[in-house]
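Quick question: what would this complex look like in 3D?
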Amino acid sequence: MPTLKIHHIGYLVKKIEAAIHTFETLGYQVVQASMYDDIRKVNICFMQKDNYCIELVSPAAEDSLVSGLLKKYKNCPYHICYETADFDRDYQMLLSNGFISIDTPTPAPALQGRDVVFLTSASMGMIELLRS
Ligand code: NI
């Protein structure tokens, strides 16, 4: 069995400060202030409500990793991140179950430098895998 645990839901947002304010209106609290990820050229903020964690991701440059996605999908949730204590095994398990890797495992500055990788499935869209 995989050891996947839901870590956060990722939201694409055009303006991160405006999005933080709106999520606060719904009762979310900032648990990690907005910070710049220079690998992906995005700003990232984590918020929490009722034990659900959301990640707001906003492009910080025209050529950021998510600029194209934001143009296509506008503000929206776009991935669920799964944390695993057995990253390498679960990554291989996903690949052998039809998931396609859209990048390679890369450290995420907003997640203590832990490795993350994004994968996509033809039947359910994008997920993120996070090393515990
Ligand atoms: Ni994420």
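Answer marked as accepted. The first strand starts at residue 5 and ends at 12.
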